[in-house]
Design brief:
Layout: H1 10-14, H2 20-42, H3 48-55, H4 61-86, H5 88-107, H6 112-140, H7 143-174, H8 179-182, H9 184-198, H10 212-231, H11 241-263, H12 277-306, H13 312-317, H14 319-340, H15 345-361, H16 372-396, H17 404-438, H18 453-457, H19 461-493
Helix pairs in contact: 2-6, 2-7, 2-9, 4-5, 4-6, 4-10, 4-17, 5-6, 5-9, 6-17, 7-14, 7-16, 10-11, 10-17, 12-16, 12-17, 12-19, 14-16, 15-16, 15-19, 16-17, 17-19
């Protein structure tokens, strides 16, 4: 499809370009705020048992994580739009304030309900920090230079996945779980001050009209999708009233949202973006890779703990291999784009590698050597790495400049939704596999979803060996589906159009340029 070529944003065209030292400081600060937001979800995982022992509310424990994920998914596109309308600086600073406010609520919470409310507030700030930070890169760097910076920022996600739980565990053991929320305050305040001094403020006084109806319907739509993915088939059955209500609400919200966006003067998520081929292709890849990535992260520790008798901390450390591949290839892809000005081949090759990695995971079982599993996970990480930075760069170079924030937000939004849906789908597949392969071997266990390593260890040796093999058989379809999803992502990536990133430049003060669209 064709769309009208974008016109340069007059505000950005007049924005003074930072010198090299200021530019470096801006990028370091942006990376720090991104790390602050991305660790917001992972740092709490190792503290959940201690939190439950202090506050009670075991039935609500999953909502400590789900509330953050839900809020960050919902808040990201709205924050991206606000950044387009009023400037990145003010939105980033407000997001830091919201994130720290949420952390304060969590840190002083005296019950689980208040903690969950604080996590929702923290998630709203975190989602805004992630997308607006990445949009800042496009404001201060020309297209050719963005690849390396986006590659570096994308690697922050992988790094936080590993470091977040370790920091959380350390704080819980040495101080208390409250400090996993307070530790962010010095970093957040410092980032706020540096951004205030280095990032230019928007000078235009053009009046804007926020799309409140579209924003509300988008929030309802995204919330319904994430809640269905997290609740259906686990907390509630698919035929339960809450799930059926959400399933009816989703198509109604879609219809209402499309109708509202067609009438809005400044739509929160312009429908014209969906006519741009690179927007379609990149976000399709983001969605599909998100399914595969989060599904692998969710179920590999379970295999290691139950089948291979690896303790919880070590099972998490096995994922370091996956994140090492992700971080390394994010750096490589950024430098490749800067050196060559090309990016189309990267997601096609990497998703093919991802497909191979997922197929290798289908071969693991009780007899698989432990050293081989990190090798397979490294291959999976290598397959994921380039897609994150390439997806953002390909979107930023294809959309009109005035939609840069919401376009960048869409990459994170589709990846998170893909992760939520993928985890739900893979969970349903695993549950069916347990019912088919494991339950006949353990007729005394009424709730097969509550299977633990202690229950397996209590079995006689012969039955235990059969159950471990059955659990492996139940997990294998997850990785078969993951490989299929990766193959579809590979096909989707071939639709990307190689738009020029411009000549390589080492100017310390690049002039903002209009970006082409199809």
């Amino acid at each position: 499809m064709q769309s009208t070529p974008p016109q340069p944003n007059p505000d950005l065209a007049e924005m003074p370009s930072p010198d090299s030292a200021t530019l470096r400081l801006i990028l370091i600060t942006v990376a720090t705020t991104l790390f602050l937001a991305s660790t917001g979800n992972t740092i709490v995982t190792t503290a959940l048992p201690r939190i439950v022992s202090d506050l009670g509310g075991l039935a609500y424990i999953s909502w400590v994580v789900t509330a953050f994920l839900l809020a960050s998914t919902v808040g990201a596109p709205i924050a991206g739009k606000l950044g387009d309308m009023y400037g990145r600086k003010i939105v980033l600073q407000c997001a830091i304030g919201v994130f720290l406010l949420g952390g304060l609520i969590c840190g002083v919470a005296g019950n689980m309900e208040v903690l969950i409310a604080g996590r929702f507030v923290q998630g709203m700030g975190g989602g805004a920090l992630i997308v607006v930070s990445m949009a800042v890169v496009a404001d201060v760097l020309p297209p050719r230079e963005r690849g390396r910076a986006q590659g570096t920022l994308s690697s922050v996600f992988g790094f936080s996945t590993v470091v977040g739980p370790l920091i959380g565990g350390l704080l819980v053991q040495t101080v208390s779980w409250h400090w996993i929320f307070f530790v962010n305050f010095p970093i957040g305040v410092l980032a706020f001050i540096i951004l205030n001094r280095t990032l230019p403020s928007r000078t235009e006084n053009t009046p804007h009209k926020m799309d409140f109806v579209g924003s509300a319907l988008l929030m309802i739509l995204l919330s319904s999708v994430v809640l269905v993915a997290n609740l259906a088939g686990t907390v509630y059955s698919w035929s339960s009233l809450p799930v059926l209500f959400l399933l009816v609400l989703v198509p109604m919200a879609v219809v209402g949202f499309i109708s509202a966006e067609r009438r809005a003067r400044e739509p929160v998520l312009p429908l014209d973006l969906f006519r741009i081929r690179n927007f379609q292709a990149a976000n399709s890849v983001n969605f599909l890779v998100g399914m595969t990535m989060f599904g692998t992260i969710a179920f590999m520790p379970m295999f290691l703990q139950i089948v291979k008798h690896v303790d919880p901390i070590r099972s998490g450390l096995y994922l370091v291999a996956m994140m090492a591949g992700l971080i390394g290839m994010s750096f490589f892809s950024g430098r490749f784009m800067r050196a060559t000005g090309r990016y189309k081949i990267l997601p096609t090759v990497s998703t093919a590698v991802l497909c191979v990695g997922m197929l290798l995971l289908t071969t693991i079982g009780p007899d698989t050597p432990l050293w081989l599993i990190p090798v397979y996970l490294l291959i999976v990480g290598i397959g994921i790495g380039p897609t994150m930075s390439v997806g953002i760069v390909s979107i930023q170079t294809a959309i009109p400049r005035e939609h840069l924030g919401v376009g960048t937000a869409s990459a994170n939004m589709f990846r998170l939704i893909g992760g939520a849906i993928g985890t739900s789908v893979f969970g349903a597949i695993f549950t069916l596999g347990l019912d088919r392969h494991v339950k006949p071997l353990m007729p005394g266990v009424e709730n097969i979803r509550g299977l633990t390593s202690d229950l397996v260890d209590a079995l006689d040796p012969v039955t235990k060996a059969e159950v471990l093999l059955a659990i492996s058989d139940a997990l294998m379809p997850i990785y078969v589906v993951g490989a299929t999803v990766a193959a579809v992502a590979c096909l989707a990536s071939t639709r990307l159009v190689e738009l020029p990133l411009g000549p390589e430049t080492r100017r310390s003060a690049p002039e903002p340029q209009a970006t082409p669209a199809e």
